[in-house]
């Protein structure tokens, strides 16, 4: 296929723009009508006036790349090609407006991406009547997921563990650059779901359990992805997901479990991250695949149009998740036919359908619904307007593809990935200061996660379930390789004891269980680094029925502890697997989460003391499977009687608390002060504290401000995170940290589902310091 040059594209669109002036003359410019807040862009409005019903419907359809490609062999070696007949059917005959995903469930190199997407855009902008470019979308959730050359950064849960806003911004900015260099302008990220249930298979895709932490990190991700201007070859459109309540799992803990959520809970905990993200200008939103109170969210007018579009004022593009309109009929049984499912979802407020295969049926049925009056032309135009607006803002009409370049994949991005991993890894326990280790220490490295790049990255890494990682990471260091490089190969013995069966049917399969061999090897070393956790997974394939770590891994830990050698437990998992049966026997415990391609290097540097750990838990690490409560539980859950589930007979029923994380140095907090002991709704409240590094090495500390409403008309949470900052301190250095609060920052959702701050007393807490303040009327 012959490709046009960028100059030819500019010339073509100048001519096209001139031909549309007659329509533009009748428009009022980029203004909003009184009944519709969606921006009116003259160029887009002129296109809409020319479009047939069929062309409009096609714009709302999104298909997966597999539909329009063919060819054998690995895509990176030239086996993948555009299927001419299929692409003409989809784009020319049915006017499909969007393509997503990769082909063959594997990452492609930059040049393959350029060939495929430029070929798609060639057809869209040359062979269709109105020359409307396609918008391509991808799940680039911790780097350009499906690009072979991409930098794989820590997953979102690990980014949250850094508590470093700037790092999250820099990761998103680098991801945008590498994704756009792959010719993909739309990123299905960030996840703003509440990561509060540790059983969930997607908790590692979230920013943790706290609403404020999620909101802050989400804003940084959006800022990094989108920048100030979408029409830029280094930025991508963000997509907030999954609106809303997706992570609430009722009793099962399994992905897409129907949820029961009160309006109070929805607005108190789930809504704020999305609300702040919408206000920041996020370009698109993906809808929750599940059910809330028996209603599939994809068919809920109240949630999509009422809450998202009307109440929050979202004027961007709303897209479904994978095949979720079809699920209204196939799975949820709320629509007796596929046609009725389309009507239900489209009238609820869906703008684009991620079909991803049955586009012919979708397009033909939606055309029928419009012609029958079951879907109004106004609703169809609204959807098309939102889609074309985003294409216009991304500059796709002027520049539908960019030239391939490896310059975007820089060493600077790799340094950011390493820095993020080194700040995310969390030291949970360090008995007798066993860490850091001296350089000559003889080490046994054991456990199934010791020599795997797949487990360091997790799902959505070069392939959906992460099973393709090893194909692309031969030059990266596993934990074992990094320890060998740091401490010397002659000082390191590797005996796994337990290995994952990467060819097994599920991520849970294990084989080559030889615990005795690991125990025997321990006789000849000074210390054991035991790498336990999980294999890679996400979504339904990652469902589990037992939050305990696997029996084989538990037995390995117990038997190694019996050797009398110090055991440093390294937890490499996407969620906090229960370790209570052997945690007390571990000399040190580190949580690496899913820190990406440079996790091994960062961990080795922490073990050696070259990096001082500064990560903090973004969730509560549970001790028991029946005590899965977040830190912001109610007071009734803290009873010292058998009625309590958080404290039981005086015992704390979590393994590690939210925000926990140790350092190789020590910090002292003093001089907590507030600007107003009594304040009003109009006052700015300043809260300051001094933090001193009282140890012997430099370190980073996360300063967290919690607030407690002492009495309220609804039972208040015991405390809530309201502010945080991460600071660097040299030995002996003291810094003063000041936070600004308003009365609204201490608010809650009341019984009438309204956000209020009631007069009364509040306790402010930073570390072990408290202050009581009072809001007066």
From TrEMBL:
Coiled coil: none annotated. It catalyses: Hydrolysis of terminal, non-reducing beta-D-glucosyl residues with release of beta-D-glucose. This is beta-glucosidase. It comes from Alkalitalea saponilacus. It comes from the Bacteria. The keyword Hydrolase applies. Residues 701-770 form the Fibronectin type III-like domain. Pfam families: Fn3-like, Glyco_hydro_3, Glyco_hydro_3_C.
């Amino acid at each position: 296929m012959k490709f046009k040059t960028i100059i030819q594209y500019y010339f073509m669109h100048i001519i096209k723009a001139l031909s549309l002036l007659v329509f533009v003359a009748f428009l009022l410019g980029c203004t909003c009508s009184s009944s519709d807040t969606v921006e009116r862009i003259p160029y887009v409005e002129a296109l809409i006036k020319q479009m047939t019903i069929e062309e409009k419907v096609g714009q709302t359809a999104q298909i997966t790349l597999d539909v329009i490609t063919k060819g054998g062999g690995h895509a990176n070696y030239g086996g993948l090609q555009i299927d001419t007949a299929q692409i003409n059917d989809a784009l020319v005959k049915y006017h499909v407006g969007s393509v997503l995903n990769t082909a063959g469930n594997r990452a492609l190199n930059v040049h393959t991406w350029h060939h495929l997407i430029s070929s798609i855009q060639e057809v869209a902008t040359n062979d269709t009547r109105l020359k409307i470019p396609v918008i391509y979308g991808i799940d680039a959730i911790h780097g350009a997921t499906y690009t072979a050359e991409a930098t794989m950064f820590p997953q979102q849960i690990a980014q949250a563990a850094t508590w470093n806003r700037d790092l999250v911004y820099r990761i998103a900015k680098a991801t945008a650059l590498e994704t756009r260099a792959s010719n993909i302008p739309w990123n299905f990220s960030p996840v703003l779901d509440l990561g509060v249930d540790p059983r969930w298979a997607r908790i590692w895709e979230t920013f943790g359990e706290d609403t404020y932490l999620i909101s802050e990190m989400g804003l940084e991700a959006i800022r990094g992805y989108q920048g100030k201007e979408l029409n830029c070859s280094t930025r991508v459109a963000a997509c907030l997901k999954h609106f809303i309540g997706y992570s609430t799992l009722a009793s099962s803990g399994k992905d897409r479990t129907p949820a029961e959520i009160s309006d109070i809970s929805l607005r108190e905990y789930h809504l704020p991250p999305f609300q702040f993200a919408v206000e920041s200008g996020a370009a698109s939103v993906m809808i929750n695949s599940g059910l809330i109170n028996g209603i599939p969210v994809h068919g809920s007018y109240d949630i999509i149009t009422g809450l998202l579009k009307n109440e929050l004022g979202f004027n961007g593009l709303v897209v479904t998740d994978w095949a979720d309109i079809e699920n209204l009929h196939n799975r949820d049984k709320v629509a007796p036919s596929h046609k009725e499912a389309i009507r239900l979802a489209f009238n609820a407020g869906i703008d684009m359908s991620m079909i991803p295969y049955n586009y012919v049926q979708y397009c033909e049925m939606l055309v029928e619904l419009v012609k029958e009056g079951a879907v109004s032309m106004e609703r169809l135009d609204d959807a098309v307007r939102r889609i074309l607006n985003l294409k216009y803002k991304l500059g796709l009409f002027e520049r539908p593809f960019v030239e391939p370049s490896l310059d975007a994949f820089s060493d600077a991005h790799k340094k950011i990935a390493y820095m993020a991993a080194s700040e995310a890894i969390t030291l949970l326990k360090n008995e007798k200061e066993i860490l850091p280790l001296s350089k000559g220490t003889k080490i046994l490295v054991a456990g199934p996660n010791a020599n795997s790049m797949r487990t360091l990255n997790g799902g959505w890494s070069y392939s959906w379930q992460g099973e393709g990682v090893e194909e692309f990471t031969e030059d990266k260091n596993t934990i074992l390789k990094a320890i060998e490089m740091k401490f010397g190969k002659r000082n390191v013995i590797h005996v796994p004891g337990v290995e994952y069966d990467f060819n097994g049917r599920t991520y849970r399969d294990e084989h080559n269980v030889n615990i005795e061999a690991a125990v025997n090897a321990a006789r000849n070393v000074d210390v054991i680094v035991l790498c336990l956790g999980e294999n890679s997974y996400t979504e339904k394939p990652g469902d589990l029925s037992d939050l305990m770590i696997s029996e084989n891994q538990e037995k390995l830990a117990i038997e190694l502890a019996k050797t009398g050698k110090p055991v440093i437990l390294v937890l490499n998992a996407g969620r906090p697997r229960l370790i209570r049966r052997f945690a007390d026997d571990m000399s040190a415990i580190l949580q690496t989460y899913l820190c990406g391609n440079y996790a091994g290097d960062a961990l080795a540097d922490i073990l050696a003391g070259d990096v001082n750990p500064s990560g903090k838990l973004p969730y509560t690490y549970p001790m028991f499977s029946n005590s899965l409560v977040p830190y912001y539980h109610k007071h009734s859950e803290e009873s010292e009687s058998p009625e309590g589930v958080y404290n039981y007979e005086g015992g704390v029923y979590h393994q590690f608390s939210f925000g926990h994380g140790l350092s190789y140095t020590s910090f002292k907090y003093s001089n907590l002060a507030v600007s107003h002991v009594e304040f009003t709704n109009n006052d700015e409240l300043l809260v300051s504290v001094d933090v001193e590094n009282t140890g012997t090495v430099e370190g980073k500390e996360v300063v967290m401000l919690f607030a407690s409403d002492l009495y309220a008309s609804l039972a208040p949470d015991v405390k809530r995170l309201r502010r945080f900052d991460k600071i660097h301190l040299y030995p002996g250095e003291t810094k003063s940290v000041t936070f600004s609060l308003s009365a609204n920052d201490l608010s809650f959702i009341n019984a009438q589902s309204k956000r209020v701050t009631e007069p009364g007393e509040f306790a402010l807490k930073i570390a072990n310091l408290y202050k009581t303040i009072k809001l007066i009327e």
